[in-house]
Amino acid sequence: MSKNNGSSLAYRIISIVILLVLAFLFLFPLYWIVTGSLKTQQAINSATPDWWPKEFTLRNYETLFSKRTAPLFQLGSLTGPTVPGAIRWLINTVFMAVMAMLLTCVTAAMAGYSLAKKRFTGRYLLFSLIVAAMALPKQVILIPLIREMSSLGLYDNIWAVILPTVGWPFGVFLMKQFSEGIPGEMLEAARIDGASELKTFTTVVYPMIKPGVGALAIFTFINSWNDYFLQLIMLTSSNKLTISLGIATMQAENSTDYGLIMAGASLAAIPIILVFLVFQKYFTKGITMGAVKG
Amino acid sequence: MKKLLALLLALCMVFALAACGEPAPAEKPAEGETAETAETTETTETTETTEAPVEITLWTYPIGNWGDEATVKALIDGFTAETGIVVKVEYLTYADGDDKVNTALTAKQAPDLIMEGPERLVTNWGVKGYMVDISDMFDDTDKAEINAAALAACYAPNGAAYEYPVVMTAHCMAINYTAFVEAGADQYIDLETHTWTTEQFFQAVQALYDYYGGTVGAIYCSGQGGDQGTRALINNLYGGTFTTADHTAYTWDDPLNIKALKALYDQDGIDFDPGINGGEEIANFYNGIFKMAFCWNIAQQLNPNSAGTGAGLTGSGDEIVFMAFPSEDGTAKLQGGIWGFGIFDNGDPAKIEAARTFIKYMCDSEHTADAVRASNFFAARSSAEGTDLSTVWADNEIMDEYTKILPMLGDYYQVTTNWPTARTAWWNMLQQVGTSDGSEEAIAAAVAEFCKQANTPAA
Amino acid sequence: MYKTMSPRLRRRENISGYMFLLPSLIFFLGFVVYPMIMCIWTSFTDANMDINTPTSFIGFANYKELWQDPVFLKGLRNTIIIVVVSVPVVCIFSLWVASAIYKMKEGPLSFFRIVFYLPVVTGSVAVTVVWKWMYNNYTGIFNYLLKNGGIIDKNINWLGDPKYALACIILILLTTSVGQPIVLYVSALSNVDHSLVEAAEVDGATNTQAFWRIKWPQIMPTTLYILIITTINSFQCFALIQLLTSGGPNYATETIMYYIYYTAFKLSRFGYGNAMGVILAIFIAILSAVQFRLAKEK
Question: Which residues from A are below 8 Å from B5, CB to CB?
Answer without folding.
Answer: 106, 202, 206
